[in-house]
Write a sequence for this structure.
């Protein structure tokens, strides 16, 4: 799957929204990737996660982890294609934790996957969790990287699509200056 093919999937499912959005990072943006328009479609999710599995199979992951919320679906479906376990990292305090009896053993080969990365906060928190379990992180797979940067997490990192979407600090947001109403989306605002 190419980046252009993934962009078409995002557009075809209505996942790219335009307006004035408050992102989970606290930044503002004129576009928002509503991952659940993509993830509500099992056929599309299956195709995307099969591609992540294909790209990371050589790393021989033994478990796939994703941060809540959308990362749960991506981890499960990617793990299914790899024939390994899937776990998810839930918010706890200022980081992430394994609950519900999930474990990562010392040295266990871990693939981290997520839906949409804006600034890398959820990915970093999940990396810290894997490291605290003494797991062996073998790669990071993303459906969409909208960070606009080449973030280095120290392991192979691949995104099915890289989107350049501007994000603004609230006090520097041109949409705020124009008086465009701000919309909050995503579970981070609940």
């Amino acid at each position: 799957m190419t980046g252009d093919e993934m962009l078409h999937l995002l557009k075809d499912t209505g996942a790219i929204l335009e307006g004035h959005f408050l992102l989970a990072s606290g930044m503002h943006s004129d576009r928002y990737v509503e991952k659940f328009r993509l993830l509500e479609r099992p056929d599309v999710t299956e195709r995307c996660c099969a591609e992540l599995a294909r790209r990371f199979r050589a790393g021989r992951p033994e478990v796939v982890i994703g941060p809540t919320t959308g990362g749960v679906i991506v981890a499960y479906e990617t793990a299914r294609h790899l024939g390994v376990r899937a776990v998810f990292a839930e918010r706890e305090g200022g980081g992430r934790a394994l609950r519900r009896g999930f474990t990562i053993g010392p040295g266990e080969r871990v693939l981290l996957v997520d839906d949409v990365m804006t600034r890398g906060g959820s990915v970093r928190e999940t990396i810290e969790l894997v490291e605290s379990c003494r797991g062996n992180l073998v790669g990071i797979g993303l459906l969409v990287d909208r960070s606009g940067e080449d973030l280095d997490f120290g392991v192979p990192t691949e995104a099915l699509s890289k989107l350049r979407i501007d994000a603004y600090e609230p006090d520097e947001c041109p949409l705020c200056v124009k008086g465009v109403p701000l919309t909050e989306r995503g579970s981070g605002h609940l």
